């Protein structure tokens, strides 16, 4: 939507215009996706166990992302001396949101899966905006007919609960559901810390099912390079980012904050490294709850992180 | 919990102490309910169609209600010249909340119904704190073995949708579900206004199933006495109060606000009139979402209204 | 944008999807406006004299308007027994925003005028979302080649300052600028109250230039019918709504709040009456500043009012 | 402070400059008060029984009052056709605040009394900005050597508690303390409603000590003229305004909100009537707590009310 | 309160149920304390010198602590590979709050002391939730008949003012009051930084009375182990945590924030070290003011820190 | 304003009294500046490209600065063992604000320049409180008749845009405008990071015009001493601090936040080093937007930083 022009062109300040992701074009017809990256909202939050409100995550991230649309000539990073997302060659579309049906988790999840499958069929990389972390379940489901993936998670919580009171599709379950897939070849779970919904057995199960678990402090002791070395090289990576993997000081707008999380650059350097180590084939960013984000820090973080990540994915892929 | 005493007694200011409803005693053992009124929280909000957050309704109403606990000698109303809720004879307990299972509407509703049935079995009047308006469905279900009731609703929305996309238990459906019960003898729906989730057919269905529908402006033209006259006299009333029946100026903290609602005294005088016209046998107050209630107006309204209503129910019953 | 469909149709809850006005289609090509009503954002606020932030008015009103998009079958009003905005025949488009150039009032205003002229040329009714009240100046300018209009203003302030410290295009000047046009045949200024930026001379000038000024209390004493009678019948009306004409209790999110303003129904009934008394040919709604609207009351009011007004304009015109 | 001038004069918009009350001059030397009205802050809030924060009342009211300083030529009211507060003849000073000593109620109250006595000695009318309602106690004390006064209170609460747990100088006690003075000839207590900290005995005591008590609904039934008639004519009035006498919809920023309060014009018309009925010799406005006033409605109300009241006091006195 | 059970057990999500500390049982009868740890609220804030509101600290910390109650099987920490707070053996009770008397500092402090003495008499470890830092004074007083303690303080401010304007019991005085006790054998004051209420003489007095003072930067240069080594080993420690010792980025909700504070893990590692170095015999955590904590970061920090600290105290004691 | 005294002196707590900067005296007569440091507000924000609201920066920083006025004996820093800002010898005045004319950038900037010239003429060091970063343009203009200066900038953004859509005086242009001056001998731009409004050409232009650009990560790798070494020694420094140079976790209240910014001590140590390396002859601190600063972290940071910086400037100058 940034290509609008009348006689004299437009300055197109961030606060001007319809809020699509990064002000990229809106494509409501999911049979006409022609893009390298397709953004899909998944505004589902019935899977939360504490604060709700992640249903407004997609809308709020889109709004914050407009701040990062004002480099028309692309996003120049003086530290890397690279212009990411050059206007001429960047093909990103915003598909709007999957349809959500209140009271009905199964149908809502099915609708998300439907959208991700459309993106994959079109050959684009899906970038899904949650919603709570349970939306990762249909995202991973949608990869069932693709080549195997290695899952990289940034999160405060292990999310490896099998079942509790019958619940298997809440926001505490997605990594367990993913690990059960034969096309998920392994998991790297980073940022896991403190008391969590997952008990000791969950950690044991995760490790036995192929998971490498690192806390924030362990990540810091190792350094980002050593952490990247633990991730299998040259693979297809699906990256799931729970915003609560970051510190509450920069990500207060989330449902289950946990102190002691990552800084912005720790996250960015890990994501940057992944784009150079293999192929990122899918992304979701979840648990942004704008009702608890009065200054917009969290949505700004989500938008800043995703646009930098997408820029690097597109720049470093061959 | 207001009866605590050490050597010199306690002043027990509102900001002091555990926040139960009105600082009345907490009774976690639902087989030992000995009270005239039993308060139950129903922190369920997966039935919402716009903003979530009503899951924190019960906790926030309890907190606000502590402001109205500091008349130890009861609540003296100088206009009525009556002391409501006299400490000696008032038997109110707080049962805590029904258990909620994320992602699972049916089980959550069943747990609410379980609690209300316990209260009814104990001979107490249930006062249920929502949660979204769908929690009215299990509340009404719980009356299946009691004498028939007439349902009085204060609300901006008709909530009379039969089914849409398979949803029959969301917050747009409860009045339809109630009207289907043979032990619900009629409905009076007051405050209904503006565009709503209910289409013209819903209004026709409601009227054909025994509903009397009044907007805020119609209420004002008639006056409270004439409105009361339209409600069958001498009946058992179940009263469901959607806080969005009140004006957004005093009830901003709700999911689907609708301008043009009731003032406080319009609501109070209607409720006061009901206590004199028949027997109030059950109450729910729903859709309080404290994340949108930065100054506490909405929770204060809910607490002030409920304590005044309960006081009048207990005073006027014979 | 509400017409999206995949295999099973969409429930399209308000929190789902890209936020255009009322979820109506986005038309970025202003040479292809095919609609009865065209919505244009004018996110300009350098004309404010106290709090800024009205630049986020258009975006926030769009977001709030999604709440009122969920009657797919149109907006049924049970008091009027009319279904406004029936899906089949309603042609509304959202044009996005006029381009704003920071530090440059003249260019920003010119861009707004450019957009309104495009709408008028297409034969649609412009509905402009401010921005501060100075955006009314380019809106009125754009009518220079149309038939004359009578201007109806809802506002707390007279906005009739001629010039002060060289400022002629700030938010205190628009009504003076309008009155100077020969195609503005008269003004009705309603809601004016309290201390204002306009001194006694301004009131005298306004009256001498054809203005009828009424305070909120004068409006109430007269009643809405008598007020309507003072507006010339059968004319073309341009309606400018400063949200601060409404009471701060329902419109806190504005730059210069003034206590003692209108209720929702006072405003609605006046607007409803206008649609029956003549032709509404242009509308702007200004001064919504969402940074001061923590619960969304003000944006909800703006959206609810506009959708009801547009529905009535389209229903009652012949 | 509004008289500042450099070469070209100043526009002096409300957001510009040091925030004194109404941008009137700051006079830190209390032995040099030369004014008709002297404003004194009393930022004391240890007397509150629920929410604190009224200590920031004076500072926040000053800040809001800058909005009403931009009519340099005075405040023209088109309904009254009077220019209040004409710049040439208006002598108002801001004395800053009385010194407050944390943990020490007696000393803090003494410092407030000291300031009010200085004002009275200078022949000015004291306008005291609270702080909680207990600051009325030292204000009234300061009148001990003046002619008798009749006390008019706008409030939700009777504040007539004699003593509880040893407390005699909290915000529930001031009217009792005032009634005990021989130079307080009577009280008119208006707006009193709902459950209060005062029990039935308090009401009886108040009436027996010369108080006339009216609720909001009683006020409305009588009308403002009849209410004014109940106040002894031609007397010296001390007016104490608890902001919670007004409705929470316009005054959410207060410690103990009570629904069902006054509108702005009800308050203004009562105050306006007082200025014509006798001499207002002292004013306090208390219980503004800006931490609960996110949109500034309450501070705006306080400032708007006080400036209008002061303008009328000065205009109507002979 | 987490042991509630009906037929099928409860999931007991954090947002469900009465908010006691960690959802541990409420014990209103202070003569029946049977626990290892007893939590007492001290909602007193008349000792503050800037922002008030710490009176709501206990209630808000309890509410936040419910997030950390959902590991029914205890709190498994994968970094330590320890399950803290195992459900079977953990005996924690919540006593509610000490009674507070507005305007009366001495009586309020006496009531806090009364409660702590009850806890000590019962052989439990007191964990006191402030309230402002002055509540440490009665807490330390209550240890007068116990074995001597070494006081460890985490704070931005030295709080070592002797007397100013007669104030000896405000929130700037507690460490001075403690140092005067013969049963306080020494102080370690950590985190002290920047401009403070304490002048140079205060620092000299503190050092001469046995205090070891470290700033955040000094702490960082030394490292946590070296800091622990400066604290006498094998002693009984009383730990007082002023939340403003932590950085405003994670603890904005406090009265006198000071930039440059501790991160979460710096605090946790210090506390963890203490539990291994000696016996922690008392704890208070003060100055949480939820009115400034819009996202709940501060209350979450307080709850997360306390539950981790208590878990380690109970795990490491012999 | 802190020197007020009545019979017994004043405690002068931070929440008491008129909010001038640091409670230093207000000097409205700009021809009578007798001070070492003169504080001037520049509440201009029409130059912003995203969120507005910096017009309230001066007022909000003044308010926050009162927290740091309560060391009457000066500001003792125990790490440096220095008492900064000793009461006896510190001469700081607050001049209030430059006059701002809405809609008129050129006149508003001229008024700021006028004020800074007055300060320079009086021989004082100007400390200007923004307002957006465009206010730096008139500040630098005012130095045209002084000795040359080296400009040190702390910022997330390069602000080196030459012209775009005719805009040359917005908040993206000031460093370009400064670099064009012959009396600006060089620039050191620190903290620059991420996507910015400045494209690659801007960086090249900056370097070619004498700028040294360092990101936060580059600053950290070098260390503060090495960074200081890159700044020419013994020069006159003008320091411009954009609050968004700091991390959003401590400075959320700003218009265009950028994650990954400085901590408090990184900023302070750089500023401290400058005061020892040469002469600081002018300072501005810009882009504080209190509407996004709900807990006051940002204004506290601004005030804490400025008072510490001023203290060091005055202490270390010879």
Automatic annotation (TrEMBL), chains A, B, C, D, E, F:
Q: Which family does it belong to?
A: Belongs to the arginase family. Agmatinase subfamily.
UniProt keywords, alphabetically: Hydrolase, Manganese, Metal-binding
What is this protein called in UniProt? Agmatinase
PANTHER family on file: ARGINASE/AGMATINASE, GUANIDINO ACID HYDROLASE, MITOCHONDRIAL
Please indicate which superkingdom the organism of origin belongs to: Bacteria
Name its GO BP terms in alphabetical order: putrescine biosynthetic process from arginine, via agmatine
Give the Gene3D superfamilies listed for this entry: Ureohydrolase domain
Q: Which organism is it from?
A: Nisaea acidiphila
EC top class, in one word?
hydrolase
User: Is the Transcription regulation keyword given for this protein?
Assistant: no
Which is an annotated GO molecular function term of this record?
Answer: agmatinase activity
Q: Where does Mn(2+) bind?
A: 133, 155, 157, 159, 242, 244
EC number assigned by the record: 3.5.3.11
Free-text cofactor note: Binds 2 manganese ions per subunit.
Query: InterPro entries attached here?
Result: Agmatinase-rel, Ureohydrolase, Ureohydrolase_dom_sf, Ureohydrolase_Mn_BS
| Record-linked SUPFAM superfamilies | Arginase/deacetylase
One Pfam family name is Arginase
Cofactor(s) the record lists = Mn(2+)
Query: What gene makes this protein?
Result: speB
